[in-house]
Request: fold
Amino acid sequence: MNNEKDFIEHTIDSKQIFSGRLLNVYKDTVLLPTGNQSTREYIKHPGASVVIPYLGNGQIIMVKQFRYPVNAVMLELPAGKIDPGESPEKTIRRELAEETGYHPESLKPVCRIHTCVGYSNELLHLFWAGKLKECKLSADDDETIKIVKISTKEAIALVLNGKITDAKTVIGLFWLKEILRNPELKKRFISE
Reply:
């Protein structure tokens, strides 16, 4: 098995076993490269966008909200699900305004993140937002969110001491740290 195609599994049968407002769960039978069959259970997700909203002077905007699946209040980078027909960029512009009341004059893609490849196809698009301007805050009815302006040093410290555990936020904050310390990345993302 030296070639990538030697790892590919082929779908024999696919059954949707749950359909929800956000997630769809599937149970597939697959043919393994060895010739054996196996079962794969996974979630199809519409994708999402996440943003590093940089205020300048070493400050970013984060949001604090209760996350039901983990039964905890989490400090996170703003993010949201991609709606049908929406681009990742349009999604994050909408979400940033809804969650923080800011609109970016500068929005640049940073990277893509597969959040949990073992059981979901969710793909997050991470953006850098700069030159933020206040706009009308239009929060969703089903979310209680607090806007938190925080220094990048404090945010990174919260990751390093285990206080921030949300994967997209951890990844985004490490990108933030690298962008601020790396002159080449700083030039690419921060056009102030």
Q: What stands out?
A: The two ends are 49 Å apart (CA to CA). The chain has a mean pLDDT of 94. Helices lie at 88-100, 152-160, 167-181, 183-189.
